[in-house]
Amino acid sequence: MHRRMLLAGAALLALPPARAGATKPEVAAAIQALTGGAKLRQGRIKLDIPLLVENGNAVAMTVSVPDAVSEAERIRSIHVFAEGNPNPNVINAFFGPRSGRPGLSTRIRLATSQTVIAVAACADGTFWTDSIELLVTLAACIDEI
């Protein structure tokens, strides 16, 4: 019995370590898949998150978008990506025609210092973005595999 446990432990040690976060090309590919290759435009969406985060376990974040002028400019969805997290697509929020002002406030977990990117998809097929590079002093998400 002890020999089996020893062999199982040795097998676990031989496994490659789990990757802590996504790479920038993986995040770019996820955003590309979301936009279908459409150009990301700066503005129209505002990401509000602290630049210095003491604890990555619960980081307050607000994403806001001003009211759309016409049905074509209506925000259909907001997506948030965190480049250093094991799962970089952190939030997907969808808004219908009667949702009112699009936006959200929540807390997210951040694995390490990284860039957080918000993308808003409009009904007319345009995509708007905002990003913030932040410093996390106490990392979260380290228990993910």
Question: Can you walk me through this structure?
Answer:
The chain has 145 residues and is of the alpha+beta class. It is 17% helix and 37% strand. It is built from 2 helices and 9 strands, in the order ααβββββββββ. The protein is globular and about 45 Å long.
Shape: globular
CATH superfamily: SoxY domain
Q: Describe the main β-sheet briefly.
A: 6 strands, mixed
At the fold tier of CATH, the topology name is: Immunoglobulin-like
The N- to C-terminal Cα distance equals 28 Å
Order of helices and strands: HHEEEEEEEEE
Q: What radius of gyration results from the CA coordinates?
A: 19 Å
Q: Point out poorly predicted stretches.
A: 10-19
Helix fraction?
10-25%
- Mean pLDDT over the full residue set: 81
The SS-based structural class is: alpha+beta
Strand % is 35-45%
How many strands appear in the DSSP assignment? 9
CATH architecture descriptor text: Sandwich
